[in-house]
């Protein structure tokens, strides 16, 4: 992917699953990747690779501030190239059974986490920088659990607000909507729920983390230089 060589990109929730795939793919394109997640130790996914790991809870303003200070002191004159807001959690309950605390937790990670990331790191970006939010097919439909669906619809709104606000600075903001991807998140879902989703997926298979990572890497790169405010499903036509 063009325009990534030697440029710094931050990925959140990158200890495994799609975030790790995004980090590794960006590094393979020559980017200096800072992968972040809740774990204190660098996750196994990055051992023996060029991906640097830092702990970051995306709901922590102080955590974002520390990362921004680290970047400010290491970037030199070269602006931050990209931020992938990938961290996400789910809570499998219908609206009537969703406790306030669970609702708050899902919204805090999936929406507020991305908002804090954009606020903290956009000042380090310039013309040609790119923010990618990882949404979900849940953000295009109403078939999923309540808090998760609401959070991913909200993330779409945040994406368009940010694309509008930061566009004049040459910063692009887009959102990717994965369908049924093989990661820890889906490994924990009830089989009946996954079977139902697979039945509605015209490509008749699940997706792999790499297949989302390629779209995210394209959006960070200069190949997507005129793509902003876009929503790209990577869902095997599930939402068609
Ligand atoms: P995953 O569970 O493997 O990855 C999510 C990561 O986010 C984990 O490593 C977790 O530790 C991290 N995380 C959770 N809370 C955090 C916090 N407060 N701060 C920092 N990191 C935190 O699942 P995944 O499928 O790789 O999920 C990646 C993204 O893709 C999520 O936003 C998810 O909602 C979205 N998504 C997944 C699917 C799917 O089918 N797997 C479908 C649509 C969208």
Automatic annotation (TrEMBL):
Enzyme class, UniProt record, top EC level: oxidoreductase
Entry-linked SUPFAM superfamilies: NAD(P)-binding Rossmann-fold domains
Domain of life: Bacteria
InterPro entries: KR_dom, NAD(P)-bd_dom_sf, SDR_fam
Keywords: Oxidoreductase
Enzyme Commission code(s) on record: 1.1.1.53
Family: Belongs to the short-chain dehydrogenases/reductases (SDR) family.
The protein's name: 3alpha(Or 20beta)-hydroxysteroid dehydrogenase
